[in-house]
Amino acid sequence: MRPAFVLVAAAIGLTPGAMAQEEPPRLAERAHQDRTIVYFLHAPETHAFDLYHDYTESREGMDHYLNVVRKGSTVSGPRARILDTGEALKSEILKGEAIAAAHLDIGEPVRPDSEVVVVRFPPVARGASLRLRISETYTDPERYRLDGDELVWDRSFGRPRNAVVLPAGWMLTASAIPATVSETADGRIRLDFVNPRPDEIAVLVKARRRGPAH
Amino acid sequence: MVLLAAIVLAAASPSPSPSPSAATARQTEADEYTRYELLAPGTGRFHILYEVTATTPGATRFFNPIRKGSVATDESVRDRLTGRALAFTVVSGKEARAEGLPDADPGERFIAVVLPRPVPPDGEVRLLIEKTYQDPKSYFVEGDHIVFARGLGIKRNSVVLPAGYELVACSVPAQVLTETDGRIAVSFMNPFPGEAAVVVKARRLP
After folding, report:
1. Looking at the structure, do residues B129 and B163 belong to the same domain, yes or no?
2. Which residue, among A188, A176, A198, has the nearest Cα to A38 in the 3D structure?
3. How does pLDDT run across A145-171, given as a tens digit for each residue?
4. Are B159 and B58 within one domain?
C-alpha cells in the first residue's frame, strides 16, 4: 500500500489556497513529492521574476487550483496548461468580493484586498492525474532587490526542488544554501536546490553585474 | 516470458504514428522516482514501481532498461494521465540504439513502451512502469539480516521492507516512514551526480 499522496504548501510568495488545509506532515514522504518551481529573475531593480510551477493533481474530482497572493506581493500574467497534453487552461485573477462571489475557499478570510489566481481544469477522474504548469510573474520588493550594486534574492523554499535563474549579464557571488550551478543555453546562471528534508531552506543568493576583470 | 514479442494489454491505446524527427531524437526523461518493495526474504525478488516522464518532443516510444543481472517479470506500464494500461514490448539494446538511445548497451534489454500520444512540444507523458526483479546479488540474506544493496542512479527512491521486519541500517541519509499497512519504508533523495550506494539492512521482528 502506498503512502497517501501529500500536497505541500507553496513557498513561492503565495499560498496555494486549494491546499491551505493540507499542511505538509513532517512524516510525509519527501522524495515522492514532485512539485518543482523555477524562478527566472528580471533585473533586480524591478523586483520582478517569472516563475513556473509544475505539480501533479491526483485528487479525484478536483477541478481548480488556487494561489492566494501573499500581502506585499503582486502577480500578473498567469498562464496554465496541462503538460500531459499541451492544452492551455483558463486562468484568472480574482480580488476581494469576486472571490467570495465565486464561492472559493482560499483557506483564510476573504479581505477586500485579497487576491487569488484561479486555474480551472477538467475534474480529475478516479485513478487518473494531471500534470499542470502554472506560469506567473511576481514582484516582491522586500525579498528580491538591489542592495547597492548587488542583486539579492532572499526567500525561503518549501519544495524539495527549486531553481533560480539569474538575469542575463549577472554573475553569481554567493549562495547560502548548497546548490548545483549550471549555465543555460543563453548564458544565464542557474542554481538548482534540492532539499530532501521536510523543512524550508532559507535561500540567500547574491550576484553582481559582469564587468571587466580586475 | 518477457522475450515474447508484443505484449498488448487490454486497455492499451492505439499506437500513434511515429514522426521521423522523433524517431531519431535522443530520448530525454525527467522526474524519475523509484519505489522498491522487498518481497519474501531469500527469494532475491523485489517489486519496482518506477515513475518516469518522457520529455522528448514528438516521441512515440519510450525505452526503459532491464538491468543486467536482474530477471524481470510481471511488467506493466500505465499512463498516469488516465490510469490506463499501455502496450509495450521487450526489445534489444540494438533496437533501442536506433530509436533514441545511442549509448544503449546492445547486450541489454529494454522495455519499449508505446506512448498513448506523442509527447507534446514543451510537454510530457508520465508513465508508471512496474516490474518484479529477481536479483540475489542486490537482495539477499546475511545471517539474521536481510540486505538490499544496490547502486541507485535515480535521484528519488524509497525501499519498503517486508512486513514484520525492522530497519537496522541504512547507508544513506533517509526518511524512515511507516506505511499504512505497517511496513517500514526508507525514502531518500540523492542530490549528487553519481549513483547512491544504497545498503539497507533489516531484521525480522521476534
Report:
1. no
2. A188
3. 999 999 999 999 999 999 999 999 999
4. no
Question: B1 in a domain, yes or no?
Answer: no
Q: Which value does ipTM take for this structure? A: 0.78
Domains plus CATH for chain A?
14-209 (2.60.40)
Instruction: Give Cα separations from A163 to A185, A187, B84 (angstroms).
Output: 15, 16, 32
Nearest to A34 among B31, B180, B185 (CB): B31
pTM of the predicted model as reported, rounded to 2 decimal places: 0.82
Q: Are residues B10 and B108 in the same domain?
A: yes
Interface with B, mutate which of A27, A32, A36 (most B CBs under 10 A): A32
Domain end call among B133, B163, B193: B133
Residue that terminates a domain, selected from B78, B109, B133 = B133
Domain co-membership, B63 together with B160: no
CA distance A179 to chain B (A): 9
Report the alpha-carbon distance of residue A79 to residue A92 in Å, rounded.
Answer: 8
Q: Quick check: B176 contacting A, CB < 8 Å?
A: no
pLDDT tens by residue, B137-158:
999 999 999 999 999 999 999 9
Q: Does residue B165 sit in the same domain as residue B196? A: yes
Contacts of B84 (CB under 8 A, 6+ apart): B11, B12, B13, B78, B116
Q: Is residue A41 classed as helix, strand or coil in its secondary structure? A: strand
Between the alpha carbon of residue A12 and those of residues A95, A139, B194, the distances in Å are 19, 11, 29
Q: Rg of chain A's alpha carbons, rounded to an integer?
A: 18
- Which alpha helices (H) appear in chain B, and where do they start and end? 20-24, 93-98
pLDDT of B167 strictly over 70 = yes
Q: Taking CB atoms and an 8 Å cutoff, what residues of chain B touch A83? A: 120, 123-124
The one-letter code for the residue type at A116 is V
